[in-house]
Amino acid sequence: AEYMGKTSLVAMAAADASTSVVDFEGLKVQGTKLHWAGRDLPEIPSALGAAYGATATHLDMSYNCVTAMRNLEQFTKLVSLVLDNNSIDDDGLTLPSLPSLTTLTINNNNVADIEALLNELSEKTPNLRYLSLLKNPCCPTPIFNAEKDDDDYSRYRFYVLHRLPTLQFLDSNAVTEEEIAEAHRVGKFMRVARPEVMKAPPKPKEDDAIETRPLPDDVRPEGAGPARFGVSKYVYYGRQSEGNRFILNEDL
Residue 203: exposed, middle, or buried by beta-carbon count in 10 A (0-12, 13-18, 19+)? Predict the structure, then answer.
């Protein structure tokens, strides 16, 4: 028993030592709310979850360089997650189970695969109420994408609400009762297939190149041929169209 006690003490001391050297510079802790924005962090550090995950309810890591929503397993009480203005893409959408999460904002990232994101959220965040995806390729709002229109954005909202029926707020607008009814009616048909990336055809080899010949030397100079162009002074004032005046009755 004495040996086990010494071993435990050594393990605890090692754990405390490893935690003490973690650099949390710039981290602001306000009760159960963590704010760690604008530090160019490439990921959510696992040490952050080890230190605060058991108690943290709000985590804001906006304006960093985070590429994936990983290392959140220890945030068992997380209610709000803000990851705006990062570099999260389709390869970084895997989430742990977050049953308490009600707010997720990942504005201005690189998420294009709406289907993959909704699959994760519908499975891992059953109580999600507020979701914002503005300025991501998957969010076709005409405010930030001139190639999209209001119809594109409406279809997107109907589909997201169909997949996540618990939402009360999507992007910059509250969800209306009319939208809920319409999403229930047509939302499953609003899925937009991702366009396939078309590969450019290979360049022909020199042996396969099409032989081209220059123009012959005897091409007539400009203006020497029979064709002419200019402005005609003739104006047709007939009641029929200009073309029909050349059609005779016997041609009908």
Answer: exposed
